[in-house]
């Protein structure tokens, strides 16, 4: 993920190849470690969520928003099949990334839907509130954007770094 974020798509693609080459082993190791629990079958889903997130991030770094959207949607499908756990087995909501990709693609209305769904699942998420603000602004719905922006600032008030649209 760090390689993709820095624009080193070659290095990130090598990492993705490693994930692909070891996916079955990782999934089996998780199943062995969680044997006898409801989480024993979660390993392959976690690998798929991770793989999809990395593939989507690489696609974004390459400017291929359509491929990023497809990858993030596949990750969301895997994330949705994970068994319930507290804390969640997958802790980085992929919808945030999908919403950001949709915003980059100029699909603000779809991004709004994605961010609202993430907020339904992850109430008060600063990243999704920020994305929702940006999607509302892109649609010219400034009054709604200001209301959500106030919620965002409350949620993000203790953050140590500002959030930008590029960070979604």
Overall description:
- By secondary structure, the protein is mainly alpha-helical.
- It folds into two domains: 1-92, no CATH class; 93-168, Serine Threonine Protein Phosphatase 5, Tetratricopeptide repeat (Alpha Horseshoe).
- It has eight helices and no strands.
- The protein has helices spanning 2-5, 9-33, 43-61, 65-81, 94-104, 108-121, 126-138, 142-156.
- Helix 3 (43-61) packs antiparallel against helix 4 (65-81).
- The chain is globular and about 50 Å long.
Topology of helices and strands:
Blueprint: H1 2-5, H2 9-33, H3 43-61, H4 65-81, H5 94-104, H6 108-121, H7 126-138, H8 142-156
Structural domain count: 2
Kindly state the percentage of residues in helix.
Answer: over 70%
The stretches of 5 or more residues where confidence is low (pLDDT under 50) are: none
End-to-end Cα distance, whole Å, is 13 Å
Number of helices: 8
Largest beta-sheet characterization: none
- Could you state the order of secondary-structure elements as H and E? HHHHHHHH
Number of strands: 0
Strand content: under 5%
Morphology:
globular
**Mean pLDDT, as a whole number?**
94
| Structural Rg | 17 Å
**Helix-and-strand structural type:** mainly alpha
């Amino acid at each position: 993920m760090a390689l993709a974020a820095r624009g080193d798509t070659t290095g990130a693609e090598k990492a993705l190849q490693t994930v692909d080459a070891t996916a079955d082993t990782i999934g089996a190791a998780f199943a062995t470690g969680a044997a006898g629990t409801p989480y024993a079958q979660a390993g392959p889903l976690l690998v798929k969520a991770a793989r999809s997130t990395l593939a989507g991030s690489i696609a974004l770094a390459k400017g291929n928003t359509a491929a990023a959207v497809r990858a993030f949607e596949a990750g969301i499908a895997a994330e949705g099949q994970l068994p319930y756990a507290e804390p969640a087995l997958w802790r980085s909501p992929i919808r945030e990334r999908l919403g950001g990709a949709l915003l980059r693609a100029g699909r603000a209305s779809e991004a709004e839907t994605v961010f609202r769904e993430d907020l339904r699942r992850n109430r008060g998420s600063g990243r999704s509130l920020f994305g929702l603000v940006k999607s509302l602004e892109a649609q010219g719905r400034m009054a709604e954007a200001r209301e959500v922006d106030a919620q965002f600032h409350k949620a993000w008030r203790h953050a140590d770094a500002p959030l930008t649209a590029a960070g979604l």
